[in-house]
Amino acid sequence: MTVSQPKMKKIKPGESPNAFTGTSDRNQLNPIFARAGEATDFPMDRMPDQESLAETAYQIVHDEAMLDGNARLNLATFVSTWMDPHAAKLYSETADKNMIDKDEYPQTAAIETRCWVMLASLWNAPDAKKAIGTSTIGSSEACMLGGLALKRRWQLARKAAGKSTDKPNLVLSSAVQVCWEKFCNYWDVEARYVPISDDHKVLDGFELEKYVDENTIGVVAIMGVTYTGMYEPVAQIAAALDKIEADTGLDVKIHVDGASGGMIAPFLQPDLDWDFRVERVVSISTSAHKYGLVYPGLGWVVWRTVGDLPSDLVFDVTYLGGHMPTFALNFSRPGAQVLLQYYLFLRLGWDGYYKVQKTSQDVAVFLSSEIAKMPAFELWNDGTDIPVFAWQLKPGHTDKWNLYHLSERLRLKGWLVPAYPMPDNLSNITVQRVVVRNGLSRNLAESLIEDIKEAVEYLDRLESPMPTEGLKASFTH
């Protein structure tokens, strides 16, 4: 019996046969890296003339992204680099939600309110239901809103007293995060920086009276200084402001920039007075995509009471058939991260957040203690505030290398450990900083210590100084 064979299409030059159909389809059959488009360069700085296969475009972008560092080995950033698979699934399911469309997505809007009410309670507001808050794109926007509320409160009080509103100023540490420099620049507020020093490593109320006057809209206290991770003592700053008020009559309020510490202190230092238990604190901001454990970008800001947010900063917007109050700087913005925050609040609860943050702190303390044992280094702090610490090269240890060289050696192993100068008054001091986030395990930490030891041993064996040309400070906020 003769079995008939399928009739094959004649293959033209340049075509390849499809083994399953007997036809040719160059784009489907050729290996992905030999496809047209993948095998040639796309233009880098203009839109291509023709469309391409989704698979091809995906592969090109995917391969470009591979050139970035490994996010979990990035010890420079505070920003979350890992969430669990259920969060990733929820993220993909809700990526199309627009937070501003509260009339279209009322449940997402309700969840946003639940989240900031939970935070108001976590931060010991006198009555969480009488507080007011909002989600933001990140803690920078949250800080902007906190600063704007301080400025507007000051303006309204000055106008009511018939006084000038021409020269507002804001008092903050010289180690403040750059978003506060932006706030002062964008909204015409004089920034009065209190310099840190060896004796006063953070803003602690020392000589605060030299910076505060009738034009001061407020004082910013940082729960986790970006440079080192140290807390600024909010209650101590408030006590200094109490004395200023007793001496001068000036009633100056505090905004707490809790970018990192706002989601650490309630769990690891619950007895520390830094939040709404301190009466001068009128607003608190935090970065949910830092120790709130959410993917970027999400922040929160909460005011002690509705009255602490001037009503003329709140807009009633008619959009998509509904009326809604809004007081964020951005209009359209992702709603998915708000849902991710609520997921984590439900998933972890207080006890779960404690365990996650405590584990990160334990790893930070382990790392700092191991680095403190090394003859080359001196610790700046030990990671017992937020899980962040910094160290400097011990004076006189070597003239052959510096911390920038160490940073480069560690990068060869995939670690991103930044080196940078401290702020003004201490700019002659260079430090390195490690940020321990959820995802940096004890096992990885031990590997980091071994790699630091190996790098230091290599650098200490040098017979002549390393070149310094081209060295760059690396610093991630």
Automatic annotation (TrEMBL):
Modified residues (N6-(pyridoxal phosphate)lysine): K290
Annotated region (Disordered), positions in chain: 1-26
Signal peptide bounds: none
Entry GO terms, CC: cytosol
InterPro entries per UniProt: Glutamate_decarboxylase (IPR010107), PyrdxlP-dep_de-COase (IPR002129), PyrdxlP-dep_Trfase (IPR015424), PyrdxlP-dep_Trfase_major (IPR015421)
A Gene Ontology biological process term: L-glutamate catabolic process
UniProt record similarity statement: Belongs to the group II decarboxylase family.
Identification of the protein by name: Glutamate decarboxylase
Biological source species: Microterricola gilva
